[in-house]
Amino acid sequence: MHGHVGMCGFAVPDTSAATLVAVMDRIGVRTMVCSHIQSGGAEVIRGNREVLAAMRAFPGRILGYLSVWPSAEAAVRAEVERCLDAGFVGVKVHNSQGFPYTHPAYVPAYEAAHEQHLPVLFHAWGGEREFVEIAEIAQRYPNASVLLAHAGCENEEGYLRLACEHANVFLDTAYSASPRGLVERLVAGADAEKVVWGSDAYFFSQSQQIGKVLGAKLPEETKALILSGNATRILAGRIH
Fold first, then answer.
1. What percent of the chain has pLDDT over 70?
2. What is residue 39's DSSP assignment?
3. pTM for the whole structure
């Protein structure tokens, strides 16, 4: 539920969609939902076009999160409508550009996610201020599935609290450090049905990120929920 396509600032020798899918084939990943690597930047329209090209090149293997730059509500609405008409399955928002998640220009994206029961993936740093913003959005748009990226990277208790307080909030496992026992703690603190697997590829290795789930001290049926079952339910719009 968390991957990327496109060029990035890291020393990644091959960022093609074909290579992404080749790695997926090698480790058994059927489908990855991707945003553009520059989803937090102003070039989101170009990025969305590159994501769409990857979706069309690998139908069913790469699904797309659309990204928006909150310059104006009308511009966001137009890009959301264009991307959803093209087959995108969710929204990715990033606050590294300095806009709060509650910025009014984001409203068309959240409204569409609520109306169409789509996931919204939030880049989360573990800060209490952003948790307050995301909690407000989760409450205002209950039919949208709210995914918190990098769950447990900082303020593990804050992630768990948000997931427990809101039926439509889920925890994404993508985290570079992969501390021992984190996946087990997310399941114990929130619920097995509230945790979804993300790799953040290309930033992180898919094999490393899947290994921490496969190696977790959890029942096989719980691992299946994290790796596939919960994502299938979210993408089908069934969050309650």
1. 98
2. T
3. 0.95
